[in-house]
Design goal:
The protein is α+β, with helices and mostly antiparallel strands and 164 residues long. It has one domain: Peptide deformylase (Peptide Deformylase). The protein is built from two helices and six strands; from the N terminus they run αβββββαβ. Strands 1, 2, 3, 4, 5 and 6 form a six-stranded antiparallel sheet that branches. It is globular. It starts with 25 loop residues before the first helix and ends in a 5-residue tail after the last strand.
Amino acid sequence: MTAWNIKQFPDQLLRRVSKPVDVIDSSIQLVARKLIQTMRQQPGGIGIAAPQVGILKRIAIVDISRKVKGASCHVMINPVIVKRAQKRTFREGCMSLPDYTANAYRWNEVVVEWCNLKGGLERYAAVGIEAICMQHEVDHLDGVLFIDRVGSLKSDVFRRLRYL
């Protein structure tokens, strides 16, 4: 299975709102598998959303196991953030803006609900980097980029020096 190319800013597809997934079938399962493969082939990739590969469906993957030992890979279909707490600034990057990082405003704790690949509802409480990543990926589904979450494009966006 070949990984997909990632859409790069300023591609306007990244600014479009994704449509909900109505039926979880083999085509959606294939999209999820290819998203995981594409994410894992990127340096430092810990999350990806379907719009980043040109698919305007509400599907996102979060897998921080590269950074946090024992973390799980979450395949989120139609994710919704239902609870937020403790706003803070966090340094973020994005595979769609690979040459930049930024100090983005995010919630340190979130509760997210989504459908899994079997159609079951999951509810998950995330903290720290996992919460940040979940918000980042849900934002992609709404056409929002991490640079939209900074206080100042002039002082809070930085040229990336290395890939982690």
